[in-house]
Amino acid sequence: MSTALPYDPQQLAHRAGELVANVRELAAAGWTPATSSNFSLRLDDSHVAITASGGDKSRLTEAGVMVVDLDGQPVATDRRPSAETLLHTQLYSRFAGIGCVLHTHSRNQTVASRLYAGPGHVRLDGYELLKAFAGNTTHETAIDLPVLPNSQDMRTLAAQVDALLDRQCVWGYLIDGHGLYTWGRDIAEARRHLEAFEFLLGCELELRKMHR
Amino acid sequence: MSTALPYDPQQLAHRAGELVANVRELAAAGWTPATSSNFSLRLDDSHVAITASGGDKSRLTEAGVMVVDLDGQPVATDRRPSAETLLHTQLYSRFAGIGCVLHTHSRNQTVASRLYAGPGHVRLDGYELLKAFAGNTTHETAIDLPVLPNSQDMRTLAAQVDALLDRQCVWGYLIDGHGLYTWGRDIAEARRHLEAFEFLLGCELELRKMHR
Amino acid sequence: MSTALPYDPQQLAHRAGELVANVRELAAAGWTPATSSNFSLRLDDSHVAITASGGDKSRLTEAGVMVVDLDGQPVATDRRPSAETLLHTQLYSRFAGIGCVLHTHSRNQTVASRLYAGPGHVRLDGYELLKAFAGNTTHETAIDLPVLPNSQDMRTLAAQVDALLDRQCVWGYLIDGHGLYTWGRDIAEARRHLEAFEFLLGCELELRKMHR
Amino acid sequence: MSTALPYDPQQLAHRAGELVANVRELAAAGWTPATSSNFSLRLDDSHVAITASGGDKSRLTEAGVMVVDLDGQPVATDRRPSAETLLHTQLYSRFAGIGCVLHTHSRNQTVASRLYAGPGHVRLDGYELLKAFAGNTTHETAIDLPVLPNSQDMRTLAAQVDALLDRQCVWGYLIDGHGLYTWGRDIAEARRHLEAFEFLLGCELELRKMHR
Question: Chain C: residue nearest B128 by CA?
């Protein structure tokens, strides 16, 4: 019986539909190549709706969305969550105000992660679009998008992210050779942050091709 | 009662529909990232229909279009106009023949604005597509697309634009780190100018990548 | 009465529909910026269906297709043909086997025309896709795509093209700062040639960005 | 009578539909320019469904899919198979576990084949997306994508591929100036491999434009 579920199934149905519609748009943009990438929305204080492991994201359906708790453990399902689930749930655990986490693999994101892995961040400054990040009201600022080393051990990655979040307030990070994590209070804000990072990384790479 | 409105509501309905259809096409081209960009059409001698602040332009509806007067003040609405409304209305005030103003943020526009902020203009010459600008009948000409410094103070930006328009006849300008403003007598002409600037900036950037 | 027309109006209706469907696809690819580009199909021994001057090609309808004779003069219409009509009709006049002429303005075409205007041609060699050009059966060959100087005088341009065709067998040419003309026995062959030139020019430009 | 056919016609109908839907998506991505590229699915132990020679792949229909045996000979059809059919059937003959072979001509694939023809392979290392290749479980690895010389003699090409497969386990290869062959146990896996190669080649080319 659905009354036995520890979350509201109607809320899940609503969030899964929202996730599917948005993820298909991100897949159409080419940001989820080769069944990569994963996406989540907060259901309540202790549950998250997240895309299951693998699968072509351009064909995602509600059946490809599962529920995990804030430790990343599957709830009332035998589906396998993505190996990277922990990187989503650590954000929901840490910040009550986060409602959505998006992880994509665009070419710009991956290329930038390789180029800036050495310095450990991409400096973005002087762009009007810096105002797209919640809390920013001017282009006369700079944002450092961190680049973390990649690891197949999610505990290692999560520890790096925690150390990062202890040091600074950020709206996203890159993992070297991998892709971008970004988030927001809801899916609209998270997508605005994603589009802004993607755009600004694209500008930086174009400028580097001209050796500026 | 609609008779109390200082503009023709049927004219607004018509223009809002035209604006929505066109803006969605520009958003689909990727020229309005992260809820940026704004767009307007002249309603009559003293009113302009303009997109309200923020919002994903690929989902723009008629409800996202509002009316301002030529000073940029909202008319018969409690919606907030974009901070950049003044850059639209100064053009309608100055030139009775302008019927449409388009402000976009494509990657080419933003990258070009960074590269050419130093010299203060992008020189476009020898291209057949220079004939796309109203009044040009040959490719044997050159156009300087001005690049203005960015500012969060719209009065400062507007004063720069006024000084520019005192000096030269132009169909558009870039703002550094920001994007393009372009205009025309109607939306078809303004889009033709927008497409021509976007194309020519793209060509110039490609040539620079090959160090020509 | 339609019986007074010097061409078969049913044939025109058929060809205009074919042209509209194909041109909209080329416009969607971004190869007709800012109302540029023009396209034609042979109707019979002495008539050609051709897109009228100007207009956004992504919105082309049958009403935007007109008939000219092989001298480029409008037939049974008061529409104005494109200034470049003569560059279409000279091909139909010269080669009875040509059924379609396509003139596009992609960014790759325009950039390549600027880069290779000096040598006067783009050498394409060693590509499997050279087999896409009618008559080629191997990649172990080379094609020189000519680049002609631009002119607003169509008689000058047409004379250059005639001199070129006297010298060599080609399936297309670039005009400096402008775009590509290509052709074939029917619209399918002409599009195959167009796609092949666009692809190969794109490859050459990419290789130049890597200084190879 | 269909009972005379050496393969199951219902199985063919099913596979042809699957192939058409997938090939149209690959064509929409721009990876099949100028009627190039070919695609196949295994029907049974001794038959393969493969796209017939030529034709715009964005308009592929079930009628454009034919059956060949494992020697590449047409079965129960007078259609002409692609000249490259042998490169498909040699894979099905050699590996019972292969269910799908995809051959595409994207710009990235062709450009990479030219750049890396000298060394004879493209080294891909340190990318998270290496995990997209069946059998890989970590980014801490490297894949060498072989680049073979082109030839119009399919026996020569097939012999090169056989020698390659004797030496190493690979999920694809490039042919110089030509394109990519990749495969998998079914169309979903083959497409995942195709998307991963395309993405990783694109990253490598971008990095080379920045001289890294």
Answer: C178
- Could you read off the pLDDT of C85-115 as tens digits, one per residue? 999 999 999 999 999 999 999 999 999 999 9
Amino acid at A65: V
Question: In this complex, do A199 and B114 lie within 8 Å of one another by their Cβ atoms?
Answer: no
Q: A14 phi and psi, to 5 degrees?
A: -65, -50
Q: Helices then strands (H, E): number in chain A?
A: 5, 8
Q: Mean pLDDT lowest for which of C32-41, D176-185, D203-212?
A: D203-212
Q: What are phi and psi of C43, to 5 degrees?
A: -95, -45
D neighbours by CB contacts (3+ pairs under 8 Å): A, C
Could you give the C-alpha distances from C117 to B23, B127, C108, C149, C209, in angstroms and in order?
Answer: 37, 13, 14, 7, 18
Residue A16 structure tokens: 């899964």
| Model pLDDT for residues B100-155, shown as the tens digit of each residue | 999 999 999 999 999 999 999 999 999 999 999 998 888 888 999 999 999 999 99
In chain C, what percentage of residues exceed pLDDT 70?
98
Instruction: Check if the beta carbon of residue A56 is closer than 8 Å to that of residue A98.
Output: no
Task: Quote the strand ranges of B30-141, DSSP E.
Answer: 38-44, 47-51, 65-69, 100-104, 121-125
Mutate to test the interface with C, among D59, D87, D106, D152 (most CBs of C within 10 A): D152
Please give the residue of chain B at the shortest CA–CA distance from C210. B210
User: Which chain C residue lies closest to B207 (C-alpha atoms)?
Assistant: C111
DSSP string, A165-182: HHH---SEEEETTS-EEE
What is the rounded average pLDDT of the residues D105-122? 97
Query: What share of residues in chain B are helix, strand, coil (percent, to 5)?
Result: 45, 20, 35
ipTM of the complex: 0.95
Q: Measured between beta carbons, which residues in chain A are less than 8 angstroms from residue B110?
A: 127-129, 199, 203
Helix and strand tally (H, E) in chain C?
5, 8
β-pair type (D172-175, D142-148): parallel
Q: Which of D34, D150, D179 sits opposite C195 (nearest CB)?
A: D34
User: CA torsion, points A85, A86, A87, A88, in degrees to nearest 10?
Assistant: 60
**Among partner residues A35, A150, A208, which is closest to D139 by beta-carbon distance?**
A150
Q: Chain C partners of B128 at a C-beta cutoff of 8 Å?
A: 36, 105, 110, 150, 175, 177-179
Q: Which amino acid is at A174?
A: L
Of B188, B196, B203, the CB nearest to C107: B203
Which residues are registered as beta bridge partners of D147? D174
Give the chain C residue whose CA is nearest to the CA of D106.
C199
